[in-house]
Amino acid sequence: GSGGITIKKTNQALIVGIYEEPMTPGQCNMVVERL
């Protein structure tokens, strides 16, 4: 299936979000950026 990852760099860490269908890349980005 379709999936992927989103990586967000903060001052102290790298946050990695892994998603699979039916989540879209945009939805994953919003969740990871809120962390």
From TrEMBL:
It comes from the Eukaryota. GO terms for molecular function: actin monomer binding. Keywords: Actin-binding, Cytoplasm, Cytoskeleton. It is found in: Cytoplasm, Cytoskeleton. Its main location: cytoplasm. GO terms for cellular component: cell cortex; cytoskeleton. The keyword Cytoplasm applies. Pfam families: Profilin. Gene3D superfamilies: Dynein light chain 2a, cytoplasmic. Belongs to the profilin family. This is Profilin.
